[in-house]
Amino acid sequence: TMNLLQTDAAISPGNSGGALVNQYGEVIGINAAKIDASGAEGLGFAIPISNAKPIIEDLIKYKYVKGRPLIGVTLRELTKELAYYNDLPVSEGLYVIDVAPYSGAELAGIKRGDIIIKCNGEKVTTVTALNEIRDRHKSGDELELEVNRDGQTLKIMVRLTEEKPEIARE
Fold it and tell me: Is residue 64 very low, low, confident or very high in pLDDT (cuts 50, 70, 90)?
């Protein structure tokens, strides 16, 4: 779900990220998308400035957006075929390809090859589903991940860390 302003201001290819201004020249939004279909000409959407301003301020001050929660895993969505051909013990879930050093996942003991099957009791079969659960929390909160490791089911508590890109660490 996104909170957007609808506008009939022309948004041409390459205009995303441009300012949406009111009649007084005040920036009220950041152009984000347009619908390009028959019967919907000139229908555009912008992120309200009230939503964009805290992000802009963080980017200026810290070079990243503070407080975004991070689990610290790189994942691949399992399919029945992928599970079958790789002789995996389960056919649904999220296969852990990599674990970020010093992340909550690494500190909690998540390992490459684990298969995340639930998060906080909710079944997860897509990265989007896991991210939606993660995004309901903040850095410092804990998530309970249910993982399958070599055929055994484990419950592992992972403390979310703050997503901090390399550029902000310099």
Answer: confident
